[in-house]
User: Fold this.
Amino acid sequence: MLVPTVIILVLLVIGFFAFAAYYSELLWYRSVDESGVFVRRIGVHVGLFLVFGAVLGGVVGGNAYLAFRLRPVYIPSSQEQQSLDRYRMALEPVRRLLLIAASVLLGVIAGLSAATQWKTYLLWRHSTPFGSKDPQFGLDTSFFVFKLPWYRFLLDYGFSLLLLTIVAATVVHYLYGGIRVQSGGDRTSDAARVHLSVLLGLFVLLKAVAYVLDRYSLEVSDSTVGRSDFTGLTYTDINAVLPAKTILAWVALICAVLFFANVWRRTWLLPGLGLGSLLVAAVLIGGLYPALFHQLRVKPSEADKESGQITRNIAATRTAYGLDRVVAKSYTTARDTDVAAAASSPTLAAARLIDPYVVSPTFTASQQSQTWYEFPDPLDIDRYTIGGKQVETVVAVREVDASKLNQSQRNWTNERTVYTHGYGFVAAPAAQPDTEGEPKFFAADAFGEYQQQIYFGEESPEYSIVGAPPRSQPVEADDPNAGTTSTYQGKGGVPIGGLFDRLVYAAKYRDTNLLLSSRVNSASQILYDRQPRERVEKVAPWLTVDGDPYPAVVNGRIVWIVDGYTTSNSYPYSTRQELGAATTDIVTKTSSVVAAQDDRRVNYIRNSVKATVDAYSGKVTLYAWDETDPVLKAWRNAFPGTVLDRSFLEKDTQLLSHVRYPEDLFKVQRELYSRYHVTDAKVFYSNNDFWRIPSDPTRSDETQDVPPYYLTVQMPGTAKPSFSLTTPFVPIGNRENLTAFMSVDSDPTDSTAYGTLRVLLVPTSGSGSQTFGPQLAQSSFKSNVGIAQQISLLSRGGASEVDYGNLLTLPAGGGFVYVEPVYVKPASGTARFPTLQLVLVSDGTNAAYGSTLEAALQNLAQGGSPTTGATGGSGGTGSSTSPTPSPSASSGGTTTGGATAVPAQVTALVDEALRIYQEGQRDLQAKDTVGYLSAQTRLQAVLQQLQQLTGSATLPSVGPSSSASATPSAVPSPSPSG
Assistant:
């Protein structure tokens, strides 16, 4: 009696945990006013599970029962049947129970499999026309995107159903004598022959249907043409495979008829001949003939034969990924970029010096306020109108991180009920650091009055308990500057005051404190599933969500803006792209808040939805962005009322001003465009003109693609600068010269320009016309003697670390200018936050540096750096010495109009020289020869800097050796490879 009781209790506990999981999901959807999404989705799941599970279980079980009913009355005695008698006798007491159990088990498996196809079903059920036809069959594209995947599922389900049914019927017929393997006479009874003939006929008939669907599936199948991945019909498919599929469909149909005729003829001869003919035809017509056709007719002149199909593939791929709207123009760059013109251009004026991938620790050090707050890494880029002018801005919100509490503060009460939320929005102009090389933060009132608490963010705790009865003492840590507490007043959580609800969530989180703690009261709410991406994915489970949400202050509230994509992998002739591979770069690999996509392969994508998540209330709002997208139309029909019309977003001008072109979409587009900029089929076949995305030369892992950058750029030929997403391209192979530059307008207030992809085609032939790519630009910086000395000085013999910021490729001055900020941080200690100390610039011929961008450009215009003194730079310009940054974040002269306040720098260098000298003396006393020689080398570099600043005579070498010249000349950058 004890064992059944224990089993029942275990089942009840498991059942309650399962109930808690589903019930808490329903409560969450109610908290965001989207319970209809949950109910609709669960309803479709349950419907598919019941229908397909019941059909398969019923058909298999019914045919097994029918086979039992058709068992022969008299079974000739044989050794085989005597052996089977033992099994029949053993099964007889549990025969019905076993049949029911097996049918239910198979039905559950089939139902679970069918339930996973809920998206496929809903798209088929609510399909809408594309208004375009495929080039081979003349069918609307919606047939391939919406209908064909569902038909393929039904076909696979039908094969599984019939195969299981045939196996079950065959086993029962054999077990009860309808099939006698060792019989000397007729080996099957008439009833078994008729039963199996019908089932096999249905199976072969389904195979005929499969051959017909295979014809259409060829338009979305993958293959290889030449050395390129290819989706769509090839020349062999059109001229050999399609006719073969048609013939095989007719052969299969005839074979099925022969099986059905066996109901009356009751002999296996004709069905056997038909089945044999089908197998032979499948091998010869379906396999051997296309292979020979390809080998003998196509392969000898594949480029010519496949030309028409490649043209179809190029057109379809460009349409499916939105690349058919690219505006490409030739950009013949001058070998000598007009640096003066570039320096005065809007593009250089807005060049981003505050790198959001580097300065998160600086934000934390300056704006953290309390140890339990943190800023995400990396930060985000947006733009705000400050003083009547649009300013590109590095933005972040201060989020709570309870793991930063000291050990005495780490307990359930504090982590779940006190430190529940972040506080405040922090921003700094991207192009304007302060004089200390730190971000120049906007004042707290720059964005007006706004709700500052962050209850829903990228780093929010897994769950928090908030809310309290009226007039109770607030306990939630709030304003970090005032040290105040508050109580959550929003409705974004799930009420958890009742005992049953507390029990549900105690089961969900396996946490008894939710039942026992006095902090959980009648007015309490539980906040969970708080990340913006997660909330949008749950409200719209059919969307693919961008990996980088970003915060904005809109209408007095902080909201997260999230881009959503509709995708398909069934667009005819369009090449598939793996989302994970296309969206992975050094940022997604190292960041905890920027996510790469999964490894799904798609061949159609649209940025169809813009979503917002309120950082205080958690409210999720979806706006239709691409209302012409047929996939979005289908989903809006499936989940009516979930997505608002675009007009609602356009009316909210504040929100609209912060919309930007999505990063993941751009990554996918640039990956495809590196090949599909080629529109000539034969050139595409040869692969000779393909590009690639260069690796990021500023990171230690140089195998990762350079990330796209949001920059304010005025593209050549346009009337004004635009906030844009940009990326460079270099040729395939080992060449690193720039071959193209792509940008996409990201200003939604200009509806005619937003989303316009612009490409500058850079000449790659002729040694005099080649342009540096990012790798070569970085090499020019590292090989420049003056810059190398500055980096060595900033490193302070290992006491500091140098971080290279974003290497920006900027079209300006009739060519390209590369800009790279250099940051310095202490090598050890707690205050290891980077500050901007140097700006490197290159025009593809010379490299220069300065403590500000203006100073660096001035030196570049004078022929590059380093120079020899005030009267004779090597470029022959007579420019003054390049400004030298101080070796620390807090010291150094100021720069005005490119001239440096030398005395402050001299003082800093003298102090540095004295410190190094003292280190060397200590090493000498300790008989540390290696340390002493290292100190002398560093002392040599510092003294050379002093010599350059003061214009004194050339200094003698200090120490046993020196590899640096005291008066290095301006060093041109190395020529890019061809």
